[in-house]
Description:
Structural class: alpha/beta
Oligomer: single chain
Amino acid sequence: MAKKPAAASDETAKPKDDAPAPEKAKGEKKKPEAKPEKGEAKEAKPETSEKTPKKKKAAAEKKPAGEQTPAQPGKPVAASPAVEAKPAAAVAPSGDGQAERKKKKKPGTAPSRGKKLKNHLRNIQQKLLKEGPQPLKKAVSTLKSLKRSKMDETVEIHIFLGVDPTQSDQLIRGSVSLPNGIGKSVRVLVFCQSDNVAKAKAAGADFAGGAELIEKIQKENWLDFDIALATQDMMGQVSRLGKVLGPRGLMPTPKAGTVVSMTQDIGEVVKEFKAGKVEFRTDAGGNVHALLGKRSFAVEDLRQNLQAFLDHVSSLRPPAARGAFFRKISISTSMGPGVLIAWEVVHA
C-alpha cells in the first residue's frame, strides 16, 4: 500500500506533451524579431512595387516583337506567347551584287539567245549535217542562202591541212592575188627610196618613203596601215622594226611576197595588194585562214576566188607531208555557220 503514492509522484514529475504551453505573464514584453539583411529585404519586396526608369521602358518598347528580354536574377520569367515567324521579304539586289555577278561570269560565254533564234540555228545545223560536204559552186550558193545579219558579211575560208606544224619544213606560208579582190580597201605602206617612191605612189600606195617612215614607227609607234612592202635594198634598215612589226604580222618577208626584188616592178606589186592579194600561213594546229570576199559578191565571183586560193595552197604542198593534204575545208560568213566542201572534188 505504500508504493502507490510513489508511482503517482513519478507521473506528476514527467511533463505531458499534450499539455498546453504556459501563458506568458502579463508584465513580460515581446522580444523584437531579428531584422533581415539589406539584400534579403530587397528580394522580399513584391515585383509590383519596383518602378522601372523611363529609359528602360523606352528601350523595351523599341525592341522588336518576338524578342525576349534577358531574365533578371531572382525574378520568374513569364512565358511569352508564341509569335509566328514571318518570311523575310525578298530584297532587291543592289548595284554591288550585280557587279559581283558580272565578275563571276566566265569569259568567252555567249549571251543568252531567244527561243526562235535557237530553233532557227538548230534547223540550219541539221540541214548542213544532212547535206554533208558539197562541191564548190553548190557550197557557195548554200552559203549565200544562209542570211543572218543585215550587214555585208565577209566570206572566210578555213582549211585543215595534213601537215605537222612542229616541223619547220612543213610550214605553209604565202600570198595569192584573188581575181575578184576581197571587197575591202587596204592601206599599203612601201619602204623604198629614190625613184621607187614616186612609182609606188603612182600605183596607189598610201604611204611610201624610207628612213623618215622607219623613224616615225620607232618613236611614235605609228601603225596606220594594213600591209607593209619593202624593196630589197631597204631590208637592212627595216629589220630594226622586227620587234614592232613582227608580232602584228606586218613585217615584210620574202615568203609572204612582201619583199620586192630588184627584178620586180614595184608598181605591179602594189597594184596586186591593193586589188586584194591575201596573205596566209599555218597556225599551231595546222590550219590556214583567209578572206575570200564579201557576201554581196556574185556566186561565180566567190567561186573563182575560192578556186584560185585552193589551187595556190595545193601548189605549196611540202614533200615531207604524208597522206591527204586537204583534210577538211569549210567556208563561212562572219556570223554564219560553216559549209563543208568536198576536198576530193576541189577542182569540180
